[in-house]
Amino acid sequence: MSCYFCEQIKSIRKTGSCDGFIAEFKSSYVILGHGQYFKGYCILFTKDHKEQLGKLSEKNQKVLYADVITVAGAIDRAFKPARINYENLGNITHHIHWHIIPRYKNDPYKKLPIWQIPEGKRKGKLTKFQLEEVKKKLKRFMQHCTLV
C-alpha cells in the first residue's frame, strides 16, 4: 500500500526536495499544506514511517512535539493568525503527521474544524509566485531553528 508521506520522503532523499518542501528537522519534514485557504498552513511528518504517536519513545515524542511547536511559532511570526489549530489524525494516511493550521479573524468558518468546511470552499487562490513567497517567509522564520 502506498503512503503519501513516504513518497514525499523518497523525493526529499533523492532530490533534496518535494512538492511544497519547507524544512527538515531532526525527526521530521515540513511541507506547505495544499490549497493555502489558510495562509501558512503546514504539514509536518515523521522521517520514518511510523503510525502511532504512542509507539514512539518518550524522547522521540518530545522531539517531534518540539518540531510542531517550532513550525507553529514560525507560522505565528510570519502571518500573525488569531489562532493556530493542530490536527493529528491518521485516519486516511497512516503515517504520523500534524496539520498546523493558522486561523484568521476574518475566517467565516471559525467555529468549524477545517475538515467540516466543504472542500470546494477551502481551495486556496494563491498564484505560484504567492505560494513561493509563503514558503520563503516560513523558511526565514524557521532559520533560527537547528535544522539538519
What can be said about this structure in brief?
The chain has three helices and five strands, in the order αβββαββα. With 148 residues, it is α+β, with helices and mostly antiparallel strands. It has one domain (4-142): HIT family, subunit A (2-Layer Sandwich).
Short descriptors:
148 residues, HIT family, subunit A, alpha+beta, 18% strand, single chain, five-stranded antiparallel β-sheet
Average pLDDT, to the nearest integer? 91
CATH class: Alpha Beta
Helix content: 25-40%
In percent, how much strand structure appears in the residues?
15-25%
- Give the distance, in angstroms, between the N- and C-terminal Cα atoms: 29 Å
Gyration radius (Cα, Å) is: 15 Å
Spatial ordering of strands, largest sheet: 1-2-3-5-4
| Overall body shape | globular
Q: Write out the CATH superfamily name.
A: HIT-like
Would you identify the regions where 5 or more consecutive residues have pLDDT less than 50? Answer: none
Q: What is the N-to-C order of secondary-structure elements (H for helix, E for strand)?
A: HEEEHEEH
Q: What about the largest sheet?
A: 5 strands, antiparallel
Total of helices: 3
CATH architecture: 2-Layer Sandwich
Kindly name the structural category. alpha+beta
Overall strand count: 5
Tally of separate domains: 1
CATH topology assignment: HIT family, subunit A
